[in-house]
Specification:
Blueprint lengths: L4 E5 L11 H10 L4 E4 L12 H5 L7 E2 L2 E10 L11 H4 L4 E5 L10 H13 L5 E2 L11 H10 L3 E5 L10 H15 L3 E4 L12 H9 L12 H10 L13
Parallel strand pairs: 1-2, 2-4, 4-5, 5-6, 6-7, 7-8
Antiparallel strand pairs: 3-4
Helix pairs in contact: 4-5, 5-6
Length: 247
Amino acid sequence: MKLSVDTHTHTISSGHAYSTVLENAYAAAQRGLSLMCVTDHAPTMPGAPHFWHFANQRVLPRFLHGVGVIRGVETNILNTDGEIDMDVRILDMLDWVIASFHEPIFHPADKQQHTLALVKAIESGRIDAVGHPGNPNFDFDYETVVRTAAKHNVVLEINNSSLCGSRAGSEKRCEDIAACIKEFGGRITTGSDAHFAYDVGNFEHVKQLLNKVAFPTEQVVTHTPATFLRFLQERGRQPIEAFAALY
């Protein structure tokens, strides 16, 4: 399966990543990507940048090294009300919003609380994707979350980093989540979760998993740039004029 968009990358601004936007874009070009999302950690994550960092993404060119740049953020799910750590005024300036559980922010609790937090975050209308849902520290009711995400047109992420050691124990869970989405509907996004440029666009383990469960291409929003850009419009975003040739 061809994957043309990396929807989850970090730069040095995240505090524990090691490459710049330019370095990531160059790596994306070398991998043959069409689009790359810049998704640094939102402010409550230790070491993360101030909210001005996200508001100022308008200065980023729409193309770097020939790769389209999507302006985004990886927010933190804060509580069982599904609140995230980014003001709606900033969210409205961005193209793409991931919401994730991170242990320093949302201390792992139980399956019911995790499920409630995810459902509320999805229902809020403020997020486009759930990041690395395979994390075994945050068990949840797959069917409930998958059905809610499908209803609200929010995608769940299959995260390459989770499949190669960053969140040990994610592999089987990601496989089960993908199978659940295949059965009950909805779509996925694919992210490298790169914290170093060499990993941008690395979907080796994602592709293996999707092949293993025979996941339908039409349920993958990152299959082509046009598929991803149309998804953003479905989410209520205005078309990005600079990317007109990619639709």
